[in-house]
Fold these 3 entries.
Entry 1:
Amino acid sequence: MIRLRRLALLFVSAAALSGCTLVSTSSSPTLVNSNDVPLGLLNGTIPFTDFARVLFVTRDIYMVDAAQLVIPVTRIVTSPPNLLEVLHYIPLGPTSSEQRTGVTTQVPPKLVVNLATIHDGVALIDVSSELTQIPPVGRRIAVAQFLFTAVAMGATQGIEISIDQTPFSLTLANGTRVSLITPADLAYLKYR
């Protein structure tokens, strides 16, 4: 008898709770009163501060078009942007809408940008070893993606790449090996 009461109580409780939900079942958005949003999440400042604001800016990174030329695409980053933050977007590849227009990348998604700074117009970039696993032609295109992204951030003299803290030199199309890769070295890979 006690078992039957417990089972009946469980059934009644389940039936009563089945009508409760925290998620709206409406197929259209529901307007929420701004007074109902907790923790000041709609304020113009970071929650729990009176002054700190997050500002966003756009920066160009370089991806690859159907003709295997590097082209600028825009990403939104926090302000002020630094080179490491901007280069982080290259291994993430193109967005789905960019992919639909034929935009790709030569940089493998597993590649990690460990360090990136600019000194005297030269970007010093340290990446993981995945860069060496790309075939030579693709490697030049991948390096061009990093080069022109860094140039857009102020590395007017070019880039020097290291792989896990070991200096890297790129073999250009003419067979020359360079450790300081300048915009002139890979200008033929940039869309005009």
Entry 2:
Amino acid sequence: MSLEKARDSALLAVEVYNKPAIKFKSGGYICLMMIAWTALFHAIFFRKKIKPFYKKDSGRYVKIEGDNKCWELDECLRQHFKTDTGNAVRKNLEFFIPLRNQIEHRSMPELDAGIFGECQAMLLNLDEMLEKEFGGKYCLRESLSFSLQLFPSSESLSDAVKHRPTSKPVLDFIQRYRSTVSPDVLASGKYSFKAFLIQVANHKSEKALPIQFVHYDKLSEEERKQVSQFVAMVKFKEVPISNLNVMKASQVAKKVQMALGNPKIQRGSKQVDRFNVSVHSICWKKYGVRPAPGVPNPEKTDYRYCIYDRMHNDYGYTQGWVDFLTEKLRDESELEGLYKWPPSAV
């Protein structure tokens, strides 16, 4: 059932995106593809005899209106990829989870061309995972064709949103997220699909395909040199300063505590969480992810893990920070060593 839902949602997403009259292309596509990916991960977990449901501390399943509460997509990513936080497929999906929340209630056609590469990669990755996990008969590629397109404009993404001030927060997020992705992941077709079309004379063979996709990493060195004559990519690097898609220290502490198995320590007559906000303060100091309070340049953070919010003069923490701490502190000696770290005020 989950597998069928995944395929149907993906096909609907493509249908929405390719309808010429629809202006809410990216928004509709992303929402449906999020459903498709979530259902696909659930199907994978069920096949592996893993129940993708949230549990309480007691071990009982969390219920919503009588049904077990299923893992959302971000939890599915954590469970499926584990410590592989730099996986290009994972980074592609982590781009869309907060972006969906930004655009699903807005119609912003000017963003469509700017995120086409990530949108296309999300579809190709899903089809590849369908084949890998369940076999070729479940692939979508036989049901899809290359859509006819009239590219709307030669404007850059930045120029396009100048006419729509309400789009700027979304553009800021897109540029900020891309600036935190490693160059290797950015260059991967699994993170963002990049292509260019050059019109050529009609091929003499009637059997020749009008459009054919060729993986860049499968080209010879000579073929890559020819491609490079036409294509150049510029990556803009900026230090993010915002509170978008970040967590408070208390939220980080709760997530890490649960990821570590909810361990407890004795404090007087009661038990408390072993990883709490106080221990979290020790962590950002020990691992150097942000400066101490009162420094001249508070924005100088390790922005993979921590982002400074100038408006509120405080810090937010990313999911990458949660993943880093979870992986690091599974080492018992590392976790125990935090209690020996010299304490200081937050």
Entry 3:
Amino acid sequence: MLTRRQTLAAIAASSTSVLTAPTFAQTYPLRPIKVIVPWPAGGNADVTIRPLLNRMSQVLAQPIVVENRAGATGQVGSAIAARAVPDGYSLLQLSSSTVLNSVLSSDRTVDLLRDFEPIGLAASTPMVLEVHPSVPARTLVELIDYVRANPGKLSYASGGIGTTAHLLSELLKLKTGLDITHVPYQGGAPAVADLMGGHVSMYFDVLPTALPMAKNGRVRILGIAAPRRSPMLPDAPTFAEMGFADIEGSVWVAMMAPKGTPVSVIARLNEAMSIAIADPSVRQRLDAIGAVPEQGTPAGLAALIRKESEKWADVVNRSKIKG
């Protein structure tokens, strides 16, 4: 049995250790951080996230290493990240494409909100509706009138089944009742090439790709599927302005951590993201690729994932889309 003096000494020692021992959040990070990007190097998600990670590395005073683990439309890299130790040293770069693919896929090996902790939204790239110049429509109303007068005559391109362009086009069809044929491609590049060649009539494209083509007259932009007009294209109205408030879509990127990562670490990473996003040099890099910086909270990202999942699942079900 401890004597009174021994007990007091033990209490004093434990109190000292509590006061002097640094918390995990104060010491994190102590070594390099790995971010798994579940898409090939050089793709939109990869290019968008790198300027942010470079600045976050400076804020956190540790290297941040990108590991591209592509495969199965983002499922391979996501599964690897989900199995990582939840200590803040292995993270996942999440994109809107991953959410769309999870809606289409019957594979429930990875569930974004079950298996991950949201860190925050990083950036988004708005989508615009463009048509080939041969289409006799300069506004969305004119396009709708033309298609209704010529059902089945026009076709729309996508970069593949389940892409943002595909689901946005199907949402437009659901809202307007238009009869337009889907022509899927193996990626956005061949879709754009055939649009410019007049082999397809219309396409929901990311603004940075669409803008130079519109300026040289290769395509005509009818509207932007975003909450507000873009300063890069101020004359293009939003779909809400044209009477279709629900038609919104963008390609966005965010950050997640494996489930169980300490709250203090999530907060530290979100803080570093916020500092990076606010940095003028990062904003300049994002502006150059047409991405809009977003500064959000973990709760905000979780809400976005739920909203997007519900929205696109409804489109998939009503349009009877099979993955």
